[in-house]
Amino acid sequence: MIKAVVTVVGQDQTGIVAGIATTLAKHGVNILDMSQTIMSETFTMSMLVALDAADSFDDIYAAVKEEGARLGVTVHVQRQEIFDTMAHI
Amino acid sequence: MDTTQIRETIQMVKEDNFDIRTITMGISLLDTVGGSVEETAKNVYKKITTYAKDLVAVGQQIEREYGVPITNKRISVTPVSLIAGNADEKEILVLAHALDDAAKEVGVDFIGGYSALVQKGFSHGDLALIKSLPNALTETDVVMSSVNVGSSKAGINLDAVKLMGETIKVITDKSDTANSKMVVFANAVEDNPFMAGAFHGVSEPDVVINVGISGPGVVKRALEQVKGESITVVAETIKKTAFKITRVGQLVGTIASERLGVPFGIVDLSLAPTPARGDSVAEVLEEIGLEQVGTHGTTAALMLLNDAVKKGGVMASQGVGGLSGAFIPVSEDAGMIDAVKAGTLSLAKLEAMTSVCSVGLDMIAIPGETEATTISAMIADEAAIGIQNNKTTAVRILPTNGTKVGDMVDYGGLLGTAPVMPVVDKSSADFINRGGHVPAPIHSFKN
Which domain of life is it from (chain B) (predicted)? Predict the structure, then answer.
């Protein structure tokens, strides 16, 4: 199992959380933590997720990216170590 | 989950041009020597295409998974003169082509190591390699070359300095841009992942992964937060920022090394600018408090920057190596170009800056009619700064035919655009033509 951070940024509208979460669920991705806010009308969301080895990172990334495009938001998926590495010894 | 950290990391990549500049695979060619140059070339091609076959794919996968761009994937090899001892200047070209073909086959951006180490004198292969450079650099596309002409231990080979000045002129007559693929070193390092000077030293293992990271934009952004504060705070801020970005290099290097099954060598944190605005070392120096780079105080600001970068990097990585510090190329740095155009930054000031930066006179355009002995004298000056101060120095100077001072020369892509700079018109010929050897400085006698 690997942990990753999904970040979503874009124009707020109905269904962003639902769309992204549903796509992740379809691929067996478990959401461990999430934080969502509206900063000067921009929707921003970060999710800490656990990827099952069953589905590859690339496939999951492609699926949420596609869902992001449908919703008109930008989605990034990055493995969690990159954030830990920079901030912790 | 700390969203502040997530935002900070994403901002570094998306807005501040932070990148892993290169994953460089060092490959020893010492076991490729055959009975003839053709046989050696065949072995070289085979070894490189076997060892590095997954390098690009692994690099791209890491980029996708971690969201950090890895701008270049490169290869460095054993200095070619060492495996071509019996070749002449024509035969050795077969090896240049073997490197070029192998690099293209595996899809890397550059291959470095068409090199010779001649600080104490020339071997047969060294001379063949240097004499072949005008053809090698114009007949190949991704082969990079370096020649080491001096070291703190050996002094300066003035014959080599003279020969390199002449060689640069011959290359200029064949191509306006080929000189950007070659660098003349003093105190060259054996594990440098940056081009044009990367080669795989003889004391290195059979194969190794070295990582070069950059990020002047990230340092500038951090310094914007401490405007007006004391210089102590500036040094601390640079150190902390260098630590953070070196950690990413360490992570990427570790993963690449695991996935490729190759030992991890070093991380080289070098603030290497690109022509993009916001990715400039000059702008970092200006943020420290200079109206424009090149004015009085530039050397001091650069010394502080270079030193703080090294200090921050050292603790962040299992092994810091290469050149680590700040590069000050002219053509690749928007702020440097502006300063030259404005008349603030001169060649003399650049030379002073090289005594405290991580390398030397880099990517500087000069008029095509500059005498070979004048170019040699520039190389001699840089080598002297290097060997006396126990640091690496280098010259990558670009005489361009048919240009005059102030003209702009375009080198394309990451190599950028350089304004042609004035050179002092008094001769150094009698000095260079003496030839011989500048003895090693007294502090080299430490045994």
Answer: Bacteria
CB A48 within 8 Å of CB A81: no
**CA distances (Å), origin B292, targets B65, B296, B299:** 39, 9, 12
What homologous superfamily does CATH list for A2-87?
ACT domain (3.30.70.260)
Measured in angstroms, the CA of A33 and the nearest CA of chain B are apart by: 7
Band of residue B277 on the pLDDT scale cut at 50, 70, 90: confident
Q: Which of A34, A48, A57 sits opposite B65 (nearest CB)?
A: A57
**pTM (2 d.p.):** 0.93
Contact B399, B168 (CB under 8 A): yes
A73 min Cα distance to partner chain B (Å)? 16
Taking one residue from A and the other from B, the number of pairs with CB-CB distance under 8 angstroms is 52
The CA-to-CA distance between both ends of chain B, in Å, stands at: 54
Measured between beta carbons, the chain A residues lying within 8 angstroms of B245 are: 86
Write the DSSP string, B41-53: HHHHHHHHHHHTT
CA dihedral B301, B302, B307, B310 (to 10 degrees): 130
Q: Do B65 and A35 touch (CB under 8 A)?
A: no
Cβ-defined contact of B3 to A57 (cutoff 8 Å): no
ipTM of predicted assembly, 2 dp: 0.87
Q: Please state whether B329 falls in left (phi above 0), alpha (psi between -120 and 50) or beta.
A: beta
Q: Are B382 and B436 contacting, i.e. CB atoms less than 8 angstroms apart?
A: no
Matching residue, tokens 């007559």: B173
Instruction: Answer whether A44's CB lies under 8 Å from A7's CB.
Output: yes
Residue at token pair 């080299």: B444
Interval A21-59: pLDDT, tens: 999 999 989 999 999 998 878 899 999 999 876 568 899
Nearest CA to CA, how far is B140 from chain A (Å)?
36
pLDDT of the residue at B447: 80
